[in-house]
Amino acid sequence: MPQPNVTPGTPVLDENFKHIAFIMDGNGRWAKKRGMPREYGHKVGSSNFKKICLYCCDIGFQAVTVYAFSTENWKRPKHEVSAIMNILDNYLDELKRDYKKYHNRFRFIGDLSVLTPALQEKIAYVETLNSDQPQVLNIALNYGGRGELVHAFRTLAAEGKTDITEDDISRTLYTAACGDPDMIVRTGGDIRISNFLLWQAA
Ligand code: FPP
Q1: Which element (helix H / strand E) includes 47?
Q2: How far apart are the first and last CA of the chain?
Q3: Atom of ligand 1 nearest to the CA of 50
Q4: Residue whose CB lies within 8 A of the most ligand 1 atoms, among 39, 40, 69, 119, for a mutation test
Q5: Which one of 27, 46, 123 would you pick to mutate in the ligand 1 pocket, going by the greatest count of ligand atoms within 8 A of its CB?
Q6: How far is the CA of 27 from the centre of ligand 1 (A)?
Q7: Residue 1: pLDDT above 70?
Q8: Which residues carry out catalysis?
Q9: What confidence tens digit (pLDDT) does each residue in 161-172 have?
Q10: Predicted confidence (pLDDT) at residue 151 exceeds the cutoff of 50
Q11: CA dihedral in degrees (169, 104, 193, 48; nearest 10)?
Q12: What whole-number distance in Å separates Cα of residue 137 and Cα of residue 62?
């Protein structure tokens, strides 16, 4: 297993912790409490998310997976969805510019086909950056755990598999390369899984 880029002097993780996942919520409530629009919460939340990702890589997590936009999130008001897509667009531009600041490669998981062609193009480019880095940041977009399982089963059907095992399913999940998460953090403080990493969270 390649060694992560741990910054000297930072606490080193117990070797059992390899993969951490975040359900990134609470942004709207945080903003509302301060009399601000939900979009402001998403802006501040995404800036915290960047710091947290850097820190998680720094202390040695091999993989960080973040639930940035679910298949259900399209039901939100148009202006909120559009603000989130804007934050994502700016984030991709920032990664194109400053990718060297990060010591991980980037993967986008979920059904990306519904995103605009411009976003899809930027995502495809960003996925080529830092490709030699052992650590990975998975960003889940238009993601749902049930959808991921359907995608896995379809992949197995296309392979002609009939005698399907648990290992077959695990290897066809979007997160196959990094294994199951050792910890899932829900930033807004609720204790619900919300269709995130359903198989992996077992
Ligand atoms: C849910 O929290 C959060 C979202 C629907 C979107 C979060 C995504 C972003 C801020 C875009 C970031 C993307 C990247 C990769 C930079 P909520 O605010 O609805 O939570 P609450 O209503 O429970 O407070």
Answers
A1: helix 38-58
A2: 24
A3: 16
A4: 69
A5: 27
A6: 6
A7: no
A8: 25, 73
A9: 999 999 999 999
A10: yes
A11: -170
A12: 9
In this structure, the residue with its CA closest to atom 7 of ligand 1 is: 68
Residue 9 identity (one-letter amino acid):
G
Can you tell me the mean pLDDT for 33-49? 97
Q: What is the DSSP string of 149-200?
A: HHHHHHHHHHTT--S--HHHHHHTSTTGGG-S-SEEEETT-----TTSSTTT
Question: Which residues form the pocket of ligand 1, taking CB atoms under 6 Å from any ligand atom?
Answer: 24-29, 38, 41-42, 45-46, 49, 68-69, 73, 84, 87-88, 91, 139, 188
Tokens of 43: 């802006």
Which amino acid, 10?
T
184 forms beta bridges with 21
Q: Which residue has the tokens 């598999």?
A: 161
Cα-to-centroid distance, 76 and ligand 1 (Å): 11
